[in-house]
Amino acid sequence: MSFQLKGMKAVVTGGSSGIGLATVELLVAEGAYVAWCGRHEERLDASKALILERYPNAQVFTQTCNVLDKSDVEHFAQQVEAHFGGIDILINNAGQGRVSNFDNTEDQAWLDEVELKYFSVLNPIKACLPALKRSTCASITNVNSLLALQPEPHMIATSAARAALLNLTHSLAHEFTQYQIRVNSILLGMVESEQWRRRFAARSDQTQSWETWIGKIAQERGIPMARLGKPEEPARALVFLASPLASYTTGSTLDVSGGFNKHL
């Protein structure tokens, strides 16, 4: 079944690797015009080359951008509009977690987490909002974490900031109905990443396969599906929520955690 995205213009932040790149590829495969950004030029160029190798006729645009730099994001949004003539979809994917508990989280770290989780979303929304208002099928979808509803003591600052982002997303969903812009989010559990691959390379038992090693971690963490998610799995959820197939869905969160959630 088609996501009905042919010819739509999409922006993905943090699109050069992992979930972001998987989302970019799915959007491109569905016929969307896709712009994405990242902080590292070399990685960004490599991601663009990969997409164009797989989809030679794809309509794409990339630019290095720090989503915490307001002027940087504004310039990126302006260039996307100039290149594609509009923006219909914004997917906010930038951001990472901080491992620390209450005792070893410095005051500045609390502020840094709030800045990262809030302004990596607020800056792109503010920059893309004029174009989204002109769209007839606009949507904003935020990548969030299960930590927003299920905090972990060893990630206390990130958990608190993620909860704030969930609240913000819900508030924006209601405010933006006046512009016919839908706002939703996904809640991630544990997903395969380069970080996990690096840990696997440094494993103590070098005879263990990736499947055995990662399966043991999933079992230890109590993930019912007994594995970590693959980047393309949250990407499908993001693209669905961003697409016209979810035209009557706003203010919603979609759990993508393999059953790791313990709340109703």
- Beta-sheet strand percentage? 5-15%
Which range best describes the helical content: under 10%, 10-25%, 25-40%, 40-55%, 55-70% or over 70%?
Answer: 40-55%
Which strand order does the major sheet show?
3-2-1-4-5-6-7
**What is the tally of helical segments?**
8
Q: Which class of secondary structure composition applies to the elements? A: alpha/beta
Strand segment count: 7
CATH fold title of the largest domain: Rossmann fold
Estimate the mean pLDDT confidence. 95
Low-confidence stretches: none
Question: How many structural domains in the coordinates?
Answer: 2
Radius of gyration: 18 Å
Distance between the termini: 30 Å
Could you explain the architecture of this structure?
This protein has 264 residues and is α/β, with parallel strands linked by helices. It folds into 2 domains: 9-191 and 230-256, NAD(P)-binding Rossmann-like Domain (Rossmann fold); 192-228, no CATH class. The chain has a 7-stranded parallel sheet with strand order 3-2-1-4-5-6-7, sandwiched between helices. The chain has 8 helices and 7 strands; from the N terminus they run βαβαβαβαβαβαααβ. The longest helix is centred in the middle third of the chain and has 28 residues, at 107-134. The chain has helices spanning 18-29, 41-54, 70-84, 107-134, 156-175, 194-201, 210-221, 232-242, and strands at 9-12, 33-38, 60-64, 89-92, 139-145, 182-188, 253-256. The protein is globular and about 50 Å long. The chain starts with 8 loop residues before the first strand and ends in an 8-residue tail after the last strand.
